[in-house]
TrEMBL record:
Enzyme class: oxidoreductase
Catalytic reaction annotation: precorrin-2 + NAD(+) = sirohydrochlorin + NADH + 2 H(+)
One Pfam family matching this protein: Sirohm_synth_M
Record keywords: NAD, Oxidoreductase, Porphyrin biosynthesis
Gene3D superfamilies linked: NAD(P)-binding Rossmann-like Domain, SirC, precorrin-2 dehydrogenase, C-terminal helical domain-like
EC numbers on record: 1.3.1.76
NCBIfam families, sorted: cysG_Nterm (TIGR01470)
SUPFAM superfamilies assigned: NAD(P)-binding Rossmann-fold domains, Siroheme synthase middle domains-like
Tagged with keyword NAD: yes
InterPro entries in the cross-refs: Met8-like, NAD(P)-bd_dom_sf, SirC_C, Sirohaem_synthase_central, Sirohaem_synthase_N
Pathway the protein contributes to: Porphyrin-containing compound metabolism; siroheme biosynthesis; sirohydrochlorin from precorrin-2: step 1/1
Official protein name in the record: precorrin-2 dehydrogenase
Length: 212
């Protein structure tokens, strides 16, 4: 079994080519758009759920059969057709610097896409390296319950609070202590209950050194 190296890629405005416009393509597109990728689909047909995205310009659909030149500008490539011969052609045409995911042959892929839970800046990913996709989906559901929608606001607050702390304190013990204090459980509780004033008051006391 392949031992994958976990990594989060910045693909903002980079071109991702998906060869195939069916069910697998629909699964990939949503995550790619969240990452602000430039999504190009090569396929004679397009799944009905993707048509509005193509019509609105959110994705590019090239209504055609695959040709090697379709990969020229791609940073990532996803071979997602139900025809092994076409996926073979995509794999053969991919350059060494282009990362390939082949939906029908994990062993031939440079990368796989894990089950993902997103809460704003918080991204939780689960992979069994292909051993049990069902287990990955189950763990994803468990994580989605544990880290509910409140975490988006909470993590965004922590992001801004961290910037304020690093701008207020020089690198050293005071900054380190203040950053650790941001993990005070009450901050999550106040976020969940909507007590934003208490949360902000805590932060201000932290910045002025009153809570130290």
């Amino acid at each position: 079994m392949t031992n994958y190296f976990p990594i989060h890629l910045n693909i903002e405005y980079k071109t991702v080519v998906i060869v195939g416009g069916g069910h697998v393509a629909t699964q990939k597109v949503a995550s790619l758009l969240l990452a602000k990728a430039n999504v190009v689909i090569i396929s004679p047909t397009l799944h009905e759920t993707l048509v509005p995205l193509a019509e609105s310009g959110q994705i590019t659909w090239r209504e055609k059969a695959f040709e090697p030149r379709d990969l020229d500008d791609a940073s990532l490539i996803i071979a997602a057709t139900n025809e092994p011969a076409v996926n073979d052609a995509v794999q053969e045409a991919a350059q060494h610097w282009q990362l390939l995911n082949r939906a029908d042959a994990q062993g031939a892929s440079d990368f796989i896409t894990p089950a993902t839970v997103r809460r704003g800046p918080l991204v939780l990913t689960v992979s069994t390296s292909g051993a049990s996709p069902a287990l990955a989906r189950k763990i994803k559901k468990d994580l989605a319950l544990q880290f509910d929608d409140v975490y988006e606001d909470y993590v965004c607050f922590l992001q801004q609070a961290r910037l304020m702390v690093t701008a207020t304190f020089e690198k050293g013990e005071k900054r380190s202590t203040a950053l650790k204090a941001l993990l005070e459980p009450s901050l999550l509780e106040w976020t969940r209950s909507g007590d934003i004033e208490k949360r902000e008051a805590f932060l201000q006391q932290l910045l002025t050194g009153e809570s130290q």
